[in-house]
Amino acid sequence: MSELPPCPKCSSPYAYQDAAMLVCPECGHEWIEGEAPADDEPQFRDANGNVLQDGDTVTVIKDLKVKGSSSVVKVGTRVKNIRLVEGDHDIDCKIDGIGPMKLKSEFVKKA
C-alpha cells in the first residue's frame, strides 16, 4: 500500500483516498494528489486584468448611477484607499462628494 501525503492545508497525516480525490478527516480539505495547492484567497481584478489589493487607488471607467439618488459617479473619478470584500460589489470605498458605497471591480481600473 502506498504512503499518502499529508494534508496541504493542516498537515494532518490522516488523509485518505476517495476515488480520485484525497480527503483530510480533520479539516475536510479535498485535493488531487500531485496538484499544486490553490490559494484560498480570491484575486480581485480591474477592467484591464490588473490584480487589485486593499489600499489601492482606482479610477472609474464608466458613468455609474447611484442607486436611490439622482447623483452619478463620473468617468475618471479617482477612488483612494479601497477595501476588497467578497460579493457581487467587491469594492468598499468612500467617494468624495457622495460618501461610502460599493463598486464592482469590472468598472474600475488601477491608477
From TrEMBL:
Classification via InterPro entries: YjdM (IPR004624), YjdM_C (IPR013988), YjdM_N (IPR013987)
Pfam family, one: Zn_Ribbon_YjdM
Ranges of residues in domain Protein YjdM N-terminal: 3-31
Domain Protein YjdM C-terminal residues, every copy: 45-111
Superkingdom: Bacteria
Protein family: Belongs to the YjdM family.
Protein name: Alkylphosphonate utilization protein
Species, as recorded: Sediminihaliea albiluteola
Phylogenetic classification of the source organism: Bacteria, Pseudomonadati, Pseudomonadota, Gammaproteobacteria, Cellvibrionales
